[in-house]
Design brief:
Distance between the termini: 225 Å
Oligomer: single chain
Largest sheet: 5 strands, mixed
Radius of gyration: 60 Å
Strand order of the largest sheet: 6-4-1-3-7
Structural class: alpha+beta
Length: about 375
């Protein structure tokens, strides 16, 4: 017996037997754990960013989703580890594709080969276009409902006045509006400035996927009271003084600007100026106050100058009378002497007059004298 135990073959057989017993014993004890380790599990990792590889200096790519949902399936330890660390990446390689539309598959890296990976969506439709940069003017805008009653928006300016928009050629061609919207509380009645974001929109007011430089501008808002320019008309009141005749009234300015509520100012057509005729006594320039119509808060001219052309009727009569009295009447010219009628000659007498019929020379001189 001792000799058999000392034999090396016996010892080898015993050792092999014990090894088999130990192997089966351990396998039996670890059997449930092994089944747990080898069991599969499925997890969904949501909103995983998508990287894109392409010539971003000259090209623009559209259609790539910013994130995708990744489903992983496999041994539970690997699934739990991958979900916890998220040290993998999802990408699309477009570096070898030409300009145009393409259907591409999403790819991933740094995920164990023992895991089954699927994406939602699995494939994406991309459009590769030429990159274009163009300068556009910025149009500031603000709702008039923010203004106080009686105030209007005189204008708005943006600084800088233009921005550079970069995007796909098709997107640049669709640009209809480049706006900077000013916001605020209702009741605005003073000018102010505000930094506003720039938006690029198509004709249907849809926001376009483009890059804007700079993204914001400073908008200066000019607010003022509502006003209108209206003509001035004279309204004569009172009676002209005795002996005064008003030939003509001229005034300036002929137009004035009035301020106030829009609903009231829009109903006005003229600004009447009351001219008291009893004040006008001579030819000169007078000033008359402008009475503000109801609803008008301010006017550009508070006084209107009226130039009067006047004739004093009594003064003309007095002057005529004085002139008549002072100058002596013109002498009445003496009537010419009545000539002495010459008696007709007697037919029976001779043609030669007799000395008796000739008037004596001494009488004619008397008459003359």
């Amino acid at each position: 017996m001792d000799k058999m135990m000392d034999s090396p073959w016996v010892l080898r057989i015993v050792a092999l037997f014990l090894a088999f017993l130990l192997f089966f014993s351990v396998r039996t004890e670890l059997s449930p754990k092994s089944k747990t380790i080898s069991s599969e599990q499925t997890e969904v990792i949501r909103e995983v960013p998508v990287d894109v590889f392409y010539d971003d200096k000259n090209l623009i790519v559209t259609g790539i989703p910013k994130t995708v949902d990744v489903t992983i399936k496999g041994p539970m330890p690997l699934v739990m580890k991958t979900k916890a660390t998220k040290d993998f990446s999802v990408f699309v390689d477009l570096s070898k594709l030409l300009i145009g539309e393409h259907n591409v598959n999403l790819q991933y890296e740094n995920i164990s080969d023992k895991l089954q990976v699927t994406f939602d969506p699995e494939t994406v439709k991309v459009n590769i276009e030429e990159k274009v940069t163009q300068e556009f003017r910025v149009d500031p805008e603000m709702s008039n409902r923010l203004l106080e009653e009686g105030y209007i928006l005189n204008g708005m300016t943006a600084n800088p006045a233009t921005v550079y928009v970069t995007g796909a050629k098709s997107a640049i061609e669709r640009i209809s509006y480049v706006k900077a919207t000013v916001t605020g509380e209702q009741g605005l009645k003073e000018s102010f400035s505000q930094v506003a974001a720039v938006q690029v929109l198509d004709r249907d007011l849809n926001k376009l996927d483009v890059t804007i430089e700079p993204e914001t501008v400073k908008v200066q808002v000019d607010i003022g009271a509502y006003s209108r320019e209206l003509p001035v008309v004279l309204k004569e009141i009172g009676e002209v003084a005795n002996g005064i005749s008003v030939n003509q009234l001229t005034f300036s300015p002929t137009m004035v600007r009035v301020y106030g509520r829009k609903s009231i100012l829009d109903s006005l057509t003229v600004i009447p100026i009351e001219v008291d005729l009893s004040r006008i006594t001579e030819s000169k320039t007078y000033e008359f106050d402008v009475k503000l119509p109801e609803g008008v808060t301010k006017i550009s001219e508070s006084r209107i100058k009226v130039k009067a052309d006047v004739t004093k009727v009594e003064q003309e009569k007095t002057t005529t009378t004085t002139t008549t009295t002072t100058n002596p009447p013109a002498p009445t010219p003496n009537p010419p002497p009545t000539p002495t009628p010459t008696p007709p000659p007697n037919k029976e007498e001779p043609d030669t007059p007799s000395e008796d019929n000739t008037p004596p020379t001494e009488k004619t001189e008397d008459v003359d004298s």
